Amino acid sequence: MFVQYRCQQDVIKVEAKKKDALFIAMIELVGLGLFLFTILFNYKKTKKMDKFYTRYMVMANDYSLYFSFNSKQRLWFNSQFNNMSSGASRGSEMKQYLTNLLKLDGIEIIRIDLVFNNKTLIDFMERRGTAIKNQ
Q1: Rounded-to-integer distance, Cα 48 and Cα 41, Å
Q2: How far is CA 112 from the centre of its chain?
Q3: 107 pairs with which residues across the strands?
Q4: Do 114 and 91 meet the contact criterion of CB atoms below 8 Å apart?
Q5: What CA–CA distance (Å, rounded) separates 95 from 44?
Q6: Phi then psi for 68, rounded to 5 degrees?
Q7: Residue from 117, 111, 104 nearest 59 by CA
Q8: Which of 5, 91, 111, 131 is at 20 to 30 A from 53, Cα to Cα?
Q9: How many angstroms separate the Cα of 128 from the Cα of each of 11, 118, 120, 123?
Q10: Domain coordinates of the chain in residue numbers?
Q11: Mean pLDDT by 10 residues, the chain (135 residues)
């Protein structure tokens, strides 16, 4: 059996539903705009952060310079960088000297780390520590 009812709604209810639908559509458009703005903002911020990250991080294509001191250079080093009156350590004076020495057009020296080859000394210290421990 099939029964059909009349579904006519009064004009006030139809107008109220149209207003509600329009309000919901406006909320969805504002939400979509905020969503797109957030995506665009994050994209641009990520690109900007990538530039800073690449500039200040050591990358695989960066260069390392290695050099060693002989006895003559060690004497020169001690005479040039043993200036305790400045208050700076010998290492920081040496870093400043190398920074000034390596300045080239368009190349900025961000960081210099002084590393020493102390393998032999460390091996002797380990042997000494083992001998003291075993006494």
Answers
A1: 11
A2: 17
A3: 104
A4: yes
A5: 36
A6: -130, 155
A7: 111
A8: 91
A9: 99, 15, 12, 9
A10: 7-57, 71-134
A11: 70 85 92 95 88 65 67 79 70 79 72 76 88 88
